[in-house]
Design brief:
The chain is an alpha+beta fold. The chain has two helices and five strands; from the N terminus they run H-E-E-E-H-E-E.
Length: about 120
């Protein structure tokens, strides 16, 4: 149980660092850890008029695989469903409102921001 709690706390700390970085890059923070039955979104931000739904993946060690590899097709579908639900709940028509899904993949101390995954 301690490892799960510790992993959760590390994950939250990493998400906070990513949030600060993206704000420094000019994005506007909207909300964090949006949860729905169909999926979860780590960070929701705005890049000008574009809504950005961000998945944060972190791996401390390469022995557990690369962070970017953890965004599987199943996970991507869950994020997409959650994104459309968030948009519907907030009266954002995806046909008229710019939006994208980004991935911030962190391996140890190296990070890469993948836009429009």
């Amino acid at each position: 149980m301690a490892n799960r709690t510790q992993s959760y706390e590390v994950g939250l700390a990493v998400e906070q660092k990513v949030k600060r970085y993206l704000i420094q890059q000019g994005l506007l923070f909207v909300t964090a850890n949006y949860r729905a039955k169909c999926g979860e979104i780590d960070l929701i931000m705005r890049d000008g008029a574009c809504w950005v739904f961000i998945e944060v993946k972190y791996r401390a060690k390469a022995s557990h695989g690369q962070a970017a590899e953890m965004l599987t097709e199943i996970k991507r579908k869950k994020i997409t469903r959650a994104m459309y639900l968030f948009m519907a709940q907030n009266s954002l028509n995806p046909h008229h409102v710019a939006h994208r899904i980004d991935l911030v993949a962190i391996d140890g101390t190296s990070a890469k921001w993948h836009k429009s995954v």
